[in-house]
């Protein structure tokens, strides 16, 4: 059996197809968690060196100790600075932003969506799994004839 090209596909109605798409709006930024942003501090942990001899350093150290909610150890350097050592797998202090990706599956093809049905996946892994399962169904149907 020969593969279908665009002209051949017009032999079936648009509703016989599914279209998988990924879109990434160029002008949209959303706040995201460290893990989703690929944050190195989240993955490996990090250190913050604070000079508590200054008012700003005193405020930063007080925040870390009493309000940050992070797990850390403290060390003092020979220069009198405080080093806060934070464990991995916890939110860092950065405000991460990323462009969202929209993973969609809709009925129809380039000619339209006759049912109006669109499914939105929450992440790329689910979209890839759906796509793979759809490809297997098509392969099974083709082998059955």
Describe the structure.
Helix content is 32%, strand content 24%. The chain has 145 residues and is α+β, with helices and mostly antiparallel strands. The strands form three sheets. The protein has a three-stranded antiparallel sheet with strand order 1-7-8. It has a three-stranded antiparallel sheet with strand order 3-5-4. The chain is elongated, with a radius of gyration of 26 Å. The protein starts with 5 loop residues before the first helix and ends with a helix. The model has no long low-confidence stretch (mean pLDDT 87).
Brief synopsis:
This protein has 145 residues and is α+β, with helices and mostly antiparallel strands. It has helices spanning 6-9, 34-37, 40-44, 55-66, 124-144, and strands spanning 18-23, 30-31, 46-50, 72-76, 82-86, 97-98, 102-107, 118-121. The longest helix has 21 residues, at 124-144.
């Amino acid at each position: 059996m020969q593969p279908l090209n665009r002209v051949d596909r017009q032999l079936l109605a648009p509703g016989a197809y599914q279209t998988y798409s990924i879109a990434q709006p160029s002008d949209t930024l959303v706040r995201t968690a460290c893990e989703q942003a690929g944050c190195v501090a989240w993955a490996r942990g990090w250190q913050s060196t604070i000079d508590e001899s200054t008012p700003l350093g005193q405020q930063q150290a007080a925040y870390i100790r009493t309000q940050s909610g992070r797990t850390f150890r403290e060390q003092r350097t020979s220069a009198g600075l405080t080093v806060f050592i934070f464990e991995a797998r916890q939110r860092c202090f950065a405000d991460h932003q990323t462009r969202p990706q929209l993973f969609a599956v809709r009925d129809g093809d380039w000619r339209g969506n006759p049912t109006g049905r669109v499914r939105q996946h929450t992440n790329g892994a689910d979209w890839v799994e759906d796509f793979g399962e759809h490809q297997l169904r098509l392969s099974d149907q083709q082998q059955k004839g």
